[in-house]
Amino acid sequence: MTRTGPLRYIANSVGPPLPENIRDQVRNDLTGSAATPGHLIRSMIAFLPVYAGVALLLSPLVLRAAALVLAVLLALVDSLIAINPGAARLSVTVPRIWRVHARPVCTNTSAQ
Fold first, then answer.
1. Radius of gyration from C-alpha coordinates of the chain
2. How far apart are CA 89 and CA 26, in angstroms?
3. How confident is the model at residue 86 (pLDDT cuts 50, 70, 90)?
4. Rounded to two decimals, what is the model's pTM?
């Protein structure tokens, strides 16, 4: 398997179809043992403007650090959900739990 350089990697990601000689590399990048860490690292790069904006806030250092940690955690959760969207079925689970466990509210005010 041949590896390509970083410029060729970027050109392949936004350009025409892949050449035959690097299809194995791309398949390995997407399904190999390093696929999940690679996806997380690539997705963190997309959030760099958010991190820079948080770091440039005019506030105490502790507040900026806490906001930066929160931004990184939210980006990680977003990236992990993108890897396995079936794990994020909160929109289906919460209404079902609400229907099963919520008690009906009595709205009959004429019985008073």
1. 23
2. 29
3. low
4. 0.52
